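batch job 7 of whatever, protein = MFS transporter
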Amino acid sequence: MVSPVAPQPPRTASLLSAVVIVASLGYFVDIYDLVLFSIVRVKSLNGLGITVPSEVTNLGIYLINMQMAGMLLGGVLWGILGDKRGRLSVLFGSILLYSLANIANGFVQTIDQYAWLRLIAGVGLAGELGAGITLVAESLPKEKRGYGTMIVATVGVSGAMVAYWVGERFGWRNSYFIGGGLGLALLALRVGVFESGMFEQAKREDVARGNFFSLFTNSERLGRYVRCLLIGSPFWFIVGILITLAPEFGNYFNLQGPVTGGLSIFWCYLGLTLGDFTSGSLSQLLHSRNRTLQIFILACLAMVGVYLFGLHGATPTTFYFVCFLLGLAGGFWALFVTVSAEQFGTNLRATVATTAPNFARGAIVLINPTFKALQGPFSIVGAAAIIGAVLLLLAFWSASTLSESYGKDLDYQEV
């Protein structure tokens, strides 16, 4: 159930307003730090004296899991704070936390220090995207907010490519210092960014804000939330399985040369940058988030098929090109977060927009063991095909059954 609130004052009409710029740059630094560990994993562990390949793999998984645990915890924490204290407090609080944690990462001397700092960084990284998308969606006119969130995503995901370039050229410790420094420099742009008018109005309403558990006390509301999560889960299957394990898949495909996880991430995120731009623009041109999601999910299904069944004996160049196309087809990530924000009222919007992407990322915790269990009877390709098909079909169903949110008036609250 929803209740209307008083009309809001006119919102900014500029797509290059301070709020869009700060949210875009914040997400840029967020993505830089999010993927940096995957890029410098081997070099950083070698630098700490871990050189046995099996130990590098096992400790790398441990550190990634610590970062993911932080993100799951931070997703709930920042989401609730975003609806209780405001979108700006989360936007800048999360930047400060992960920036300091990443600077500290550059000084680590032990695995335990590394692990706890990845946990803290994960908590900080969890808040940026949801708070930024929520603030932009509530600050722009409803006819333009899709373009605004498109800009945030397009600028943001390019941070992965910069992380690869920095990681390759400046060493792993300096890469962390640079990422943290970028985040701290971003805080100076806080001047000129104002809190969402919708949130300010919601504070004056007698309705509970940021009640995470209320998502589970109403069946219709829970159904909306679960479908939002299902839309976002396939991308982390792509990144967490197909791209992260690119060297293993390359060996299975008998490629004509070796491929690396770092370059696979680079090309995938380059495709994602273009994909987020395309999906955001298309959703505006079609006046439909749902139809755009359906198109991209079907394209993603096709590209997963090409990756798994069309690369045997291919060249590394062809493999990287398919990684790029996978990222392009999977470029509905920001549209998924936008739809999640648009599906809920002002008093729960930040909670949903922040927890949804982090829980979708956290699906990899379930995907990984399922993938390992299926490899025995079905091989690495068969296991990936089963998981990919199930996740993408569920995502397509979810996009088809959610109510259309393009042009939706967001001036309401969940009660």
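notes: The chain has 17 helices and two strands.
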